[in-house]
Amino acid sequence: MRTFALLLALIPSVTLAATPEIVAVRVGLADRYKTGLWTQVEVTLRGGDQPVDGQLSLVTPDGDAVPSRVEASCRLPAHQETVVRTLYRPGRVRGSLTVELGEGDRRLARRVFSTADRADAEHFLPGLEYRALIVTVGEADLDIERLGRLGGFSAEHRPVAARLKDAKTLPVDWAGYEGVDAVILQTSRPDAYRSLDPDSPQVRALDLWIRMGGRLILCGGDGSALASDGPLAHWLPGRFEKTVSLRPTGLGALESFCDSRSGVPRGESDHVAMRAVRLVDPQGLVEAAEGDLPLVVRAARGLGQVIFVAVDLDHPRLRAWVDRPKLIARLLDAPTEGEESDDAAAVMHFGYDDLSGQLRSALDHFPDVRPIPFWVLAGLIVAYLLAIGPGDYFFLRRLVGRMTWTWLTFPTIMLAACLLAYGLAQQFKGDRLAVNKVDLIDVDTVSGRLRDTVWFNVFSPRMEAFDVGASPCLPGGRPQSDGHAWPAWFGLPGSAIGGMDPRTGEPSLWTEPYRFASDRRAMFGVPMAQWSTKSFTVRGTASTKDFPQAELSEDAQLLVGYLTNTFDFSLEDCLVAYDRSVYELGTIGPGESVRLGATTKRSELKTLLTGRKVVFVEGGDKFRQETTPYDPASQNVSYILRTMMFYDAAGGRRYTGLWNAYQSFVDLSGLLKTGRAIFVAQAPKGSDVRRVQGVELRLNDRPPEASHARQTTIYRFVYPVQKEKNG
């Protein structure tokens, strides 16, 4: 026994080296995110015995079930946990996420996570599609889901709140907000913002998102985070003066603002005293006030909005107010009555139930790519069955006399049928790459901020892998030095065939993932099958001074002034939307100026969008209003995009019968409430794709040939309007 113990002591101890581990993931903001859009993901890693300078890879199916990969560099200290924050683009409501950690050519760790009804160490929540995602910073989620019940939404369409207790968990990249409909910053707990300063990456990312069309609700109450040196000060639509006690008349102003039928509880004890932030020289539209104290101010910031409310929305008095959801709905421009479509035809199934799906379908129609007619296919099938059956039998039995020759005739018939099918496909579908592209270019003329949104479908006549890139450029093809453009795949919401929430599994032809560049400005090796199409989108931003010049003012509730087309090409189908009116200007040639005033053709914006007209009721002395029903089957991209651009102004889903939840940032109806005018114009048909300002698309590092591309370009220019008093 002693000898055995001695031998054990002499054997050197062997310790297994600790290797890095993937501990957990957290997808979205407070576990909530939208499918098909860029999403923040936090990956928790645990270091091994040695520090690692590695590469983190996230692999997930895209909207067509093709695996895609995003990568991020990471440094992992030994024996420590590290959280890596990056972005990825989930393509399935219920799907999986494969996380890999590597160093050089070595794979150090790999783990697969999947969706479940509860987020834990192995799972993350399913994605959203049609539900508005509202991010709140503070202690309360403000009962956001009650807004859905107020608006008559079914459970699967009600808004969702993502509540963050600390502002440091906000995204550090603006694209992390791509699926967010609004952000509410509560200031009743100032320590939630102590980790931020005006130059923090979270502040810069949020500001860029707002300027590109986002919506921020900024709450008062405790003013320390809003003071001149606070991290939130530069979003104030005015100058912070001090905090004051809100008098009962101020509560009445809030009640009137949201058409409340139930008063705010009037408690008088100190612990429920309501404080309000006083703004001086408010910039924007004051929508509610108590004397000289602005309570609600709506202001434009770039292409987005900042809505300032002087009080804390989670104050005990407001929390006990039964109509607080009405107040929040008014701030968010959310509906407060049923959103069901009036037209029963709206429930017809077109393969999509969102306007983005209709736009995607319209871009999938290529003039030179024709489907093979059904009667041709049916005839070929019948001919093939006759040939391999009675035809082959009659030929061998009656003419040849040798039935064993079927071993030769049968494969010959099959080969001939395959060659005929291939020849017909070549004849109908062609052998040339084709691109359908629609370009929506929005410019805020105050800041010079340009936002370009591109949707395009590619038809490939052969099996090929594409590199997809894009860059903002000025008229004439000049590159924009400070511009950025981010291409991505464009998914179809819903459970229809090809949708991102399929009812059954959809196997993919591809097993190896294609790759996004680390800065998201390109996609490499995107595979396409022969005679197939794929949908893409590009989000771009830049600064510009190239836009039509204008001087506009309001006089006696009319928009007056002039517009000058400074481009070297004509602008067609021009109109100016202001408040609830629209002024139709027709075509404006290069260098031409037009005046707006009492003689300009004017109508209600909703009337223009819906074709509304007044009809006399026969046999009586009454009139009724009729609208032209929205056509959800239309393939006209200009018609579809016009509705997306002013969706709320047209009546929303009540009018269209379709949602606008997936690309809702396109809708600038809210900017009209800030006193801005929006000039809408279309570039001439057949414009050179390099001549018109916007994103230059590249496939395999070169622009698609003009003969293979069909482009529609629509401009929107946002102008301030000087208010003038009549007389």
Structure write-up:
This protein is an alpha+beta fold and 727 residues long. It folds into four domains: 18-127, Coagulation Factor XIII, subunit A, domain 1 (Coagulation Factor XIII, Chain A, domain 1); 128-339, Class I glutamine amidotransferase (GATase) domain (Rossmann fold); 374-429, no CATH class; 549-681 and 718-723, no CATH class. 18% of the residues lie in helices and 34% in strands. It is built from 13 helices and 36 strands. Strands 8-7-6-3-4-22-23-20-34 form a nine-stranded mixed beta sheet, with no helix packed on it. The protein has a nine-stranded mixed beta sheet with strand order 21-24-19-18-35-33-27-28-30. Strand 3 (52-61) and strand 4 form a beta hairpin. Helix 7 (355-363) packs antiparallel against helix 11. The relative contact order is 0.11.
Report, as a whole number of angstroms, the end-to-end distance.
114 Å
Query: Which secondary-structure class do the elements indicate?
Result: alpha+beta
Q: Considering DSSP H and I runs of 4 or more, what fraction of the residues is helical?
A: 10-25%
- How would you sum up the major sheet? 9 strands, mixed
Query: Per CATH, which architecture of the largest domain?
Result: 3-Layer(aba) Sandwich
What is the CATH class of the largest domain? Alpha Beta
Whole-number mean pLDDT: 85
Any idea what the shape is?
A: globular
Q: Fill in the CATH topology of the largest domain.
A: Rossmann fold
Q: Structurally, how many domains make up the residues?
A: 4
Number of strands: 36
What is the beta-strand fraction? 25-35%
Count helical runs: 13
CATH superfamily of the largest domain: Class I glutamine amidotransferase (GATase) domain
**Low-pLDDT sequence parts:** 6-15, 341-348
Radius of gyration over alpha carbons? 30 Å
Strand order of the largest sheet: 8-7-6-3-4-22-23-20-34
